[in-house]
Amino acid sequence: MTSIEADPTVPVIRITREFRATPAQLLRAHTDPELFARWVGPDGMHTRIDHWDARTGGSYRYVSVGGNDEYAFRGCFHDIRADRIVQTFTYEAEPDGVALETLWFEDLGTGRTRLRAQSLLDTFEGRDAWLRSGMDTGVNDGYTKLERLLSHGAL
Amino acid sequence: MTSIEADPTVPVIRITREFRATPAQLLRAHTDPELFARWVGPDGMHTRIDHWDARTGGSYRYVSVGGNDEYAFRGCFHDIRADRIVQTFTYEAEPDGVALETLWFEDLGTGRTRLRAQSLLDTFEGRDAWLRSGMDTGVNDGYTKLERLLSHGAL
Description:
homodimer; alpha+beta; Alpha-D-Glucose-1,6-Bisphosphate, Chain A, domain 4; eight-stranded antiparallel sheet; 4 helices
């Protein structure tokens, strides 16, 4: 249901998934910290929001917690619009690695929206290491949780 | 004196220039808004700082003014360290284009520092259009002004 693809010509990961949601609901799912914390990341982990200022020019930091393990992520919001978010993303244990992420919310009508997400890195090695890290589990689990929130009317 | 190169394998522009300066001076030149406005951009233009919060998680907006022409640029600061700045960059007339910029200040000893700057875009077309836009004039003029400020003890 979720497509995760490596671009052959540029160091980009592309993720596509359709949701039974409006663009406004998907925007809220990515900008409201309490909603975001309820779906992001793999099953078995929970998310603690450390800092969250989801507006153009703002920034964020959150921590994924599972048992004794903590994984912190942070970045800044370059642009937040009704149909698009552009933000930076760093896993703090590898502070020199920075991805530029773009999310598009494409209204398909009849209450469905296509989420397209793109992560741009500056090397193919960095991109491929990220793909091999098990990110697909987190992405798939997260979107399944988001779908559940949507179907329960939480957004 | 300034090297401006297109990477053959990733959509990156790399700029390299050595300055008679310390890393701390180059950091200041890129983070102090009054200093930044005094050197950035081509000769014959001046720079108006509209918003400036040069810290990790902050953001900026400035306008290059020449006669009746105004060119606005904005972005967010992903990371500001003693030897590295990571920030986003958009020319507002083309709001969908976003570059992820990294600047490194490499201490060469004997009072010299190598500035390496990298602009990462998500397509080769976008990268090449930016290279053809005359950006080299702005880069070269700007760094010459920065060198003059350094030699006059302004930093």
